[in-house]
Structure formats: structure tokens, C-alpha cells
Amino acid sequence: MTNPVVNMKIKDGKNIKIELFPDQAPESVKNFISLINKGFYSNTAFLRVENDKLIQGGCPENNGTGVLGYSIKSECKDNGVNNNLKFTRGTIGYGRFEHNAESCHFFIVTQDTPQLNDKFAAFGRVIDGIDEVDRISKVKTELDVFLHRAIEKVYIENMTVNTFGVIYDSPNKLKGLSKEETLIKWNYTMEERKKTGYKVV
Q1: Which of 63, 107, 133, 158 lies in disulfide reach of 56, CB 3.0 to 4.6 Å?
Q2: Which residues form the PPIase cyclophilin-type domain (predicted)?
Q3: DSSP secondary structure string, 57-88?
Q4: Tens-digit pLDDT profile for residues 89-127
């Protein structure tokens, strides 16, 4: 079976192609495909950029706090899933506050990032257009406690996916965080990381 391939069209930029790995992270892949097919990612921005480290997008409100009303299982070894994908350069994974809280926020690392291995759900890898990912990772940013927000936002025009004739069901949906719960966790995370100086990467 041929793995699904995503084409991410960047507004005023180049395309990025990503191979997905349903054998390693089936729920993550099904969720990503489902959102793509709904046009969810069109006109969303890469709101977080850690220069030359990672780019993160997928928020429906383009501010990091948007929610879908559901989440999916964290498909990583720290959550009991035998996912062997490592966060090498070009790997795509889901962002989250805690296990089983993934929904739509995703990131792509531009360098090998072993500290994320087995802790976050990796589900694909860039196979063409890594130079465009690198370009996005160099935009101007401003520090927001523990992450850097892009000043020059780069937008995804649209995404499409070729499943090579394979039909992927909807993901198994879990109870997601509400908008209020997300804001509470966001503010708590910010306060805790102010105290510790902790950074994800």
C-alpha cells in the first residue's frame, strides 16, 4: 500500500509535500486527512516559529487557542503507542497541552529534535519542499514567554491529499477541551514556564 501524500500550498510561496505514515500513527493520519478534506487548513497561518528549529500552525483562530470540540489519542510511546517515528529534520507532529489532547495544531521540525521523540505524536515527514519549511522558519518573530510568535505570518493557501485510492475513516474522537479549558491551560502553562524558564525546544 502506498502511503498518503499531502500537498501543502503556501500562499506566495512554494509547495510542501508530506508523506503520512498510517502504520505508525493511524488516528493521527486519519484526523489530518479528515481535516484536509474539509478544507480546514485553508488560510491558517504558521503562528509559532522557532527560528531554524520548527514551524507550527493549524489553529482555526490563528492565535494558538483555537479548538475543534474533540481530540484524539496521543500516538506516542509515552502514551502506550508503538510509534517508531523519530523527530528527524522534516518530521510533522501534533502539538498538545497533555496526552490525548491533540486536535488540529501541528508542527514541522527543521532540525533533528530528539527531545521530542516518544513524547509527541509524529505522523509524517516532508518529502519535497523542505527548503520552503526552512524559509518559513526564518521569518521575524517576537518572544511570548516560552515560544516565539511570527511577526511576518505565512499562510497555508490550501492542502490536498492523495490517498492512492485508499479510503480513510474518521478518527476515533475523544472529548476535547473547551475554549475556556484551553485558555485556562494556556495561561497556567505560561505562568509555570515563566517560573521555570522551560522551553519545548
Answers
A1: 107
A2: 15-161
A3: E--TTSSS----SEEB---SGGGT--------
A4: 999 999 988 899 999 999 999 999 999 999 999 999 999
